[in-house]
Specification:
Two copies of one chain form a homodimer.
Chain A lengths: L4 H16 L7 H5 L5 H13 L3 E4 L5 E4 L8 H9 L21 H18 L3 H6 L2
Antiparallel strand pairs in A: 1-2
Helix pairs in contact in A: 1-3, 1-4
Chain A binds a DNA duplex through helix 3.
Chain lengths: 133, 133
DNA sequence: GTCAATCCCGACCTTTTTAATCGGGATAGA
DNA sequence: TCTATCCCGATTAAAAAGGTCGGGATTGAC
């Protein structure tokens, strides 16, 4: 339950791209000036591209652009892209001594928690992050 | 944004203690039968005790008990105890090139996210986890 | 009073994950 | 053709998580 550099960097990069708009593609070196190691950022942007959140223009004068409008990208999209899908609890998998195996209360309660968190994160869009709304 | 073994173990232990009720203190060795390494669990229970979630009876016939009623302990209490308080975003701390420093949109949006998540987690009590409500 | 069961605690080690670096290849505008 | 750029896998370094160990303190049972 913690915010990693990966997510923080990805958020910064996406917010920056959102602020830049559709004008021109922003080169990696420019985005990295937001305070991130350029080589590491490159990996993250690759991941974001593979998940369809940014698109690229290759070659000279190339760079990165948002793949969709900022209002159409949520924090859940970004976090899921770089951190993977939000994990589910495994609940009493080992010895079974504590009984109840599959449909135990912990599982049900945890299910409620994860979907609740997903909702919260999914309600914040990239444009919200730009405007602070 | 992931569930660690620490949290999973702590949840199991707390749920087990909740199921045992106020009858007798449960020794570490018994709790560990839920499928956790005993020495590691000991550390976790020490942390939970320091945060006032369990109390102990020392000496022979001793063990661990919930410090409060199961309805009065939430998932937020447990997670905060073992993982520390839910972190806040730092937002653009390095070069300042991306402008806006303090009260930027990302900070505001992230603030909303963390408090939202806290609410979700805080609404699930230990007794909810036992009953699955 | 002794003994055994128990909590207590800090130090250490191992494994996994995260973060960062590097080198070379592909692409395309000027 | 040259250079700025994306692309990508391999490697390393740093940090965190997960787990182990040994010895000390407490206390009920006998």
């Amino acid at each position: 339950m913690k915010l990693t550099s990966k997510t923080r960097y990805a958020m910064r990069a996406m917010v920056f791209l959102a602020e830049c708009g559709e004008s021109a593609p922003q080169p990696l070196s420019r985005i990295a000036q937001c305070g991130m190691p350029v080589n590491y950022l490159e990996q993250l942007l690759g991941t974001l591209r593979k998940h369809g959140l940014v698109r690229t223009v290759r070659g000279n004068q190339g760079g990165y652009l948002l793949a969709r409008s900022a209002g159409d990208i949520t924090l859940l999209d970004i976090i899921t892209a770089v951190e993977g899908p939000i994990k589910k609890s495994l609940c009493y998998t080992n010895t079974g001594v504590c009984s109840k195996q599959e449909n135990c209360g912990v599982n049900k309660a945890w299910e409620k928690v994860t979907s609740g968190i997903e909702q919260v994160i999914n309600r914040v869009s990239l444009s919200d992050m730009v405007t602070g709304s």
